[in-house]
Write a structure and sequence with these properties.
Blueprint: E1 4-6, E2 11-13, E3 18-26, E4 29-32, E5 35-37, H1 39-49, E6 53-54, E7 82-89, E8 95-102
Antiparallel strand pairs: 1-2, 3-4, 3-5, 3-7, 6-8, 7-8
This protein binds zinc ion (2 copies).
Length: about 120
């Protein structure tokens, strides 16, 4: 089995890998990137995002209080400045989708690492 890089650490691992595709939409400015995670660090991402999952059982309701928490600093976001969208494929799992609000001055949370090794994707 191939040795794969995990963005956390960074380190290498064998076994099932996951892929995470975050995007920060700041009005017209889009920043998208992606990174690979091992099983253990996929759980770190999943834990950080758990209140922001969008699914049939948990549709986007802008009124829901958890939707007003900034995932980067965990303070309430009063106005919608920036949105964080994440599509994640954790090791061995189906696709998951997330949406959260960010403060104007907040970037991606530490558990969604943006590195030189994960260059922005076009679009
Ligand atoms: Zn890892
Ligand atoms: Zn914030």
């Amino acid at each position: 089995m191939a040795l794969l890089p995990c963005v956390f650490g960074p380190h290498h691992f064998r076994g099932k890998s996951g892929s995470v595709y975050p995007a920060i939409i700041d009005r017209s400015e889009n920043t998208r990137w992606k990174f690979r995670v091992c099983d253990k660090h996929g759980q770190v991402v999943q834990e950080g995002l758990k209140d922001f999952e969008v699914s049939d059982e948990n549709p986007v309701t802008i009124e829901a209080e958890s939707r007003w928490v900034c995932p980067s600093c965990l303070n309430i976001v009063q106005d919608l400045y920036k949105s964080l969208y994440v599509t994640a494929y954790y090791p061995g799992q189906e696709r998951r989708d997330y949406w959260a609000k960010l403060h104007q001055n907040c970037g991606a949370p530490a558990w969604l690492p943006y590195t030189e090794a994960s260059p922005p994707l076009p679009g």
